[in-house]
Design a protein that fits this description.
Growth Hormone, Chain: A
Length: about 475
Amino acid sequence: MTTPPEPETTDVTAEGFQPEDDPGSIFGAEYRVLTLGVISVMTIVAFEAMGVITAMPTAARELDGLAWYAWGSTAVTAAGLYAMAAAGGWADRRGPVPPLASGLVAFVIGTLICGFAPTMPVLLLGRAFQGLGFGAAIVALYVIIGRAYPEHLRPRVFTALSGSWVVPGIVGPLVAGLITDAFGWRWVFFGVLLLLIPVGAVLIPRLQAMHVEPDPDADPAPGRKRLALLAAVGVVLLQVAGQRLDTFSLILAPVAIGLLAYAVPRLLPPGTLRARRGLPTVVLIRGVFAGSFFAAEWFVPLMLVNERGLSSVFAGGSLSGAALGWFLGSWIQGRPTLSISRDRLVVIGAAFTTAGLALSSVVALEAVSWQVVALTWAVGSFGMGILYGSLGVLVLKLSPPEEQGVNSAALQISDSLGVILATGLGGVIFATAHARAGQDGGVYLTIFLVMTAIAAVGTVVAPRGAPRVATGPSG
């Protein structure tokens, strides 16, 4: 795929967003409210994500749903897959505010369902609503970044988004663990609402007043919602088949694979599954590393609680250093004086992430202290910080304005598919080999080694993210 032509100027924003006091700062007068709003939404999402990772082992045990533990992640990403495809075209045609507002409402509904869930299936239903909300909101945020900020400021916006995870990443697991142990896991969900509702009530009117306009040249891209629905159904059926491993699964598995084979290539840029150079590989890499990293992370607290006997506080706290590693990686990729090309940064980030996963695998061995995971996970997170910011910048750079919504959605869809498939694979491994708490060290080791192997493949493919025509260093 050839690189789209660069705009004539890259030091101004879309109409109505030219900074007057500090054109080099995302906190200049014209950007300040927008930047703070975007950061606030991402911070709340981060608190919820880190809190749920910490609280889910307790929730699964109390609701007698440990065998369905992996579905706590799958429900979010499967529903988000559909929402992302719908929101991408919607944001291109109508602007990013409608999908953002709808996404926040769906997220609130899902959080309430989770908090009041009497059974594991109801909890998973709530997680699905949260996925719908997150999927729509994250695509809308990417479109806002592409429309409202000039190219030279976008790396710093992604750094700010990564910074939104620092405080939640450090204190979120600890606070969620304390809340879970003292008041119960339900209050982890209820606490999120105390932050989200007022922020949404302030942010949406401000965005409407700032007029982030739709693009008149946007392609309606009919059929994407149907394709996303087929893909979501496909991954759900595939995980069901993997966990059943009976005669019925022999019917489900081919149906699931058929749905995925039909829908996924049509949702992503042409050549993505073949790692075609440029945009297709950028989108592919996002899914490979999101899947391997977050699938492994999903099982870390469960391993520490069940195998090492840690409380929710310590199990969640072991991941706190990851936020600092992620932010440091993102901060480095966003430096305006950085002379390394954007595609080279992707390769560096991929290598660090793979190394972090490989090092973290040894924590599954009883002879290795559980505290080691705090350091090794920070190494992988450092790589992810470099990767996520750089991939986001590349997608916007390689997309003409009228395709920023669709291609941002493709990036998020690849992310979700990677997480769904990898977490589902981890769930299948766990469900089929799980014996009982205290005797599953080999099961977790297998899961971590499989995720490391997936990341290693991504590292080999990563150099193909460079566009066919060299663009030089990017900032």
